[in-house]
Amino acid sequence: MNKIIKFGEEVEGYDIPVLNEREIRAAAGLLFLMMFISIMIVILKGDFSMLKYAVTIFLADILIRVFVNSKFAPTLIIGRLIVGNQVPEYVGAAQKKFAWIIGAFLAATMFVLLVVANTYSPITGIICFICLIFLFFESAFGICLGCKFYNLFYKEKAKYCPGEVCDVKLKHDSQKTSIMQILIVFAFIAYIFLTVFLFNDSFRERPNDLFGVESAAHLK
Question: CA-CA distance, 95 to 107, in Å (whole number)?
Fold first, then answer.
């Protein structure tokens, strides 16, 4: 039973249970895609059915991670299949469990409000937004936002963080960002707003059918 219900993997060379960050990022990407599509359907069509399914799936998956074993979480299994040929990047399991407990609380709240009570409100909207931010940062940048709060609640500092961010170290010259690079980012943001301002009306126009396929179909 102890081999089934446990958290983290015992890997040679690591003195604490660890998890493969590459699998976690892959799983976060899958969950982000599912939640993002579901939320967009709500925004565009007002249909909550897919979001209800997504919240139910999300909750079941994260409860398995926290209370049973991450090895049996469906999205992590799929993530393992996707990145199975990549070299593992092991991270401490303790801070991941703390982050997933936060996720389980958010998912459970969403499940009760949206699925059980069949209601929506600014609360559900905010929770959806928080979940998307957490999943996006994990999948896109390898940054576990929930893990950032671990050291606030536990005296023992987190070990084996993604990208070794737990270790105090100086940045290499190649990692430093210059003032010119920051200005380029702001200029790019200004470019986006200027594009929206100048071309919004033309971008809203429906594109013409280049080969006339749609017109031919209507004639038939």
Answer: 18
DSSP-based three-state secondary structure for 30 = helix
Q: Is residue 190 part of a domain?
A: no
Question: What is the predicted pLDDT for the residue at 151?
Answer: 78
Residue 7 lies in a domain: no
Sole residue written with tokens 């979001």:
51
218 occurs within a structural domain: no
Total number of domains in the chain: 1
Predicted structure pTM score:
0.81
150 within a domain of the structure (yes/no) = yes
Range of the domain at 102: 18-171
Nearest alpha-carbon partner for 18 in 7, 27, 26, 28: 7
Asked whether the beta carbons of 27 and 70 are under 8 A apart, the reply is no
Alpha-carbon distances, residue 192 vs 61, 117, 183 (angstroms):
38, 41, 14
64 Cβ partners below 8 Å, 6+ apart? 70, 72, 73, 74
pLDDT in tens, 97-154: 999 999 999 999 999 999 999 999 999 999 999 999 999 999 999 888 888 888 788 7
